[in-house]
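Customer escalation, tier 2.

The customer says the design service returned an amino acid string that "doesn't look like it belongs to this structure." They asked us to rerun it and document both sides in this ticket. The original structure tokens are below, unchanged.
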């Protein structure tokens, strides 16, 4: 994925995943009977914040690891310089989508 795609107004795959995570979390929070709607909203906002912080920390960890052997004055590697192999991830997502499309209510994996 190019940097321009990440910064564009359109939805990236990560944004769609975040929307799915939000939906699933709201569904789970809806099952709490002894929690007010305001408390549920706060928990949802907090968990969303934490999810985004984890993503940022993951990128910072990758960048720190890539730059650990750099000497003073050398150009550091940035997020734009990091390339990820997508073939394996794409195969995994295709498998998960296929499995989900064939599943029935109550199936366990």
């Amino acid at each position: 994925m190019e940097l321009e795609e990440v910064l564009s107004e359109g939805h990236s795959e990560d944004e769609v995943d975040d929307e799915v995570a939000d939906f699933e979390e709201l569904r789970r929070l809806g099952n709490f009977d002894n929690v007010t709607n305001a408390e549920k909203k706060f928990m949802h906002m907090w968990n969303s914040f934490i999810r985004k912080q984890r993503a940022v920390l993951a990128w910072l960890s990758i960048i720190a690891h890539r730059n650990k052997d750099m000497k003073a004055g050398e150009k550091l590697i940035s997020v734009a310089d990091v390339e990820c192999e997508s073939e394996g991830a794409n195969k995994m997502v295709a498998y998960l989508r296929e499995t989900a499309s064939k599943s029935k209510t109550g199936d366990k994996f």
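Tier 2 assessment: The sequence is consistent with the input. Residues 1-13 have pLDDT under 50 and may be disordered. The chain is about 65% helix and 0% strand. Sent an explanation to the customer and offered a walkthrough call.
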